[in-house]
Design brief:
Blueprint: E1 6-8, E2 11-13, E3 17-19, H1 28-36, E4 41-43, E5 60-63, E6 66-69, H2 78-90, E7 95-99, H3 104-117, E8 121-125, H4 136-139, H5 142-155, E9 160-164, H6 171-180, E10 185-188, E11 192-195, E12 197-198, E13 203-204, E14 210-214, H7 219-232, E15 237-240, H8 246-255, E16 259-262, H9 264-269, H10 273-287
Parallel strand pairs: 3-4, 3-16, 4-7, 7-8, 8-9, 9-10, 10-15, 15-16
Antiparallel strand pairs: 1-2, 5-6, 6-14, 11-14, 12-13
Bound molecules: flavin mononucleotide.
Length: 302
């Protein structure tokens, strides 16, 4: 029997595959479906204090090796989202509430509400590459990352994860700031800032001009980030970026991740991707005589 259970802070997961924020996670029904398809937990769409429409179309383009998007953090606002969280809570789906704000007051207010509604953990989105005043703009200031993380930790009792961007001058410095602020884990990475030009129109494909690139092309970038963070912090890491197969997930685990999140992979392999990835991981482990996933976490550092 192969044991692929994993633990991130107090969160015990039946397997290491988690739904990433922003993909099929706008309502309780689709998140429950993803859980039923094998994910061990789901991350909600990033939610702010007020509703946001997001950017005008086009917001999404499929490129050769991944997806380019600039949705603009569309969401119904925290108060409207309460019902979805409470419904999912009734279905016993482990839930990580993703939130974004522009300062510590906003993050604290959102965190308290998310906890009251029943999420099992929080993910602080400090890494969206295309939302002015949010995301990467807060996540590239080490003092602000420490302040936001510690204030959220002081006002909540559930695990707090900080989601970082690869578009940072020094991801190690920012990861250490999150750890200093008492984060329970780091999530790396968000989509990578990128652009596509339409030759015929002679203009950027996205209405926002730049967006975030995700999918297989960004896996080596995510891998480098996870490896470097694992070398420099002592808290658990969740690897994200281009996970499409069991082998991809195992690479992240060997780089030091305790679990992985999957976003674009759902688009390429369907909602069953979570089950497929778990089976592929088990198969590799059986062939290489590993019985427990925990034996593989961080082995690339030895
Ligand atoms: C359409 C789309 C929407 C996304 N929305 C969010 C979001 O609201 N919050 C967030 O933290 N990340 C968001 N992401 C980033 C993903 O959670 C993930 O970090 C990124 O896509 C890399 O993983 P992947 O290669 O498995 O897709 C979004 C990604 C896509 C493709």
């Amino acid at each position: 029997m192969i044991d692929i259970t994993t633990k991130i802070a107090s969160l015990k997961l039946r397997n290491p595959t988690i739904l990433a924020s922003g993909i099929m996670d706008e309502d309780a029904g689709s998140m429950k479906r993803i859980f039923d398809c094998g994910a061990s937990a789901v991350v909600t769409k990033s939610i702010g204090l007020k509703s946001r429409e997001g950017y005008p179309n086009p917001t999404f383009a499929e490129l050769e090796h991944g997806i380019l998007n600039a949705m603009g953090l569309p969401n119904p606002g925290i108060n409207e989202f309460e019902g979805e969280i409470r419904k999912l809570k009734d279905s016993n789906v482990p839930m990580i509430g993703s939130i974004f704000g522009s300062n510590s007051h906003e993050f604290v207010e959102l965190s308290k509400k998310m906890q009251n509604y029943g999420v099992d953990a929080l993910e602080l989105n400090m890494s969206c590459p295309h939302a002015k005043g949010y995301g990467l703009e807060t996540g590239s200031d080490s003092k602000l990352v420490r302040e936001i993380t510690s204030k959220v930790k002081e006002s909540t009792s559930i695990p707090v994860f900080v989601k970082l961007s690869s578009n940072l001058t020094d991801i190690i410095e920012i990861a250490k700031s999150a750890e200093d602020g008492n984060a329970d884990g780091i999530v790396a990475i968000n989509s990578v800032k990128a652009m596509k030009i339409d030759l015929e129109l002679k203009m950027p494909v996205l209405a926002n001009k730049t967006g975030g690139y995700s999918g297989v092309a960004i896996k080596p970038i995510g891998m480098r980030c996870v490896y470097e963070i694992a070398k420099n912090v002592d808290i658990p890491i969740i690897g994200v970026g281009g996970v499409t197969t069991g082998e991809d997930a195992l690479e992240y685990i060997m780089a030091g991740a305790s679990a992985v999140q999957i976003g674009s992979g759902v688009y390429y392999r369907g909602v069953d991707i979570f089950k497929k990835i778990c089976r592929e991981m088990e198969c590799w482990m059986e062939n290489h005589n590993y019985k427990r996933l925990s034996e593989l976490i961080g082995v690339a550092h030895k």
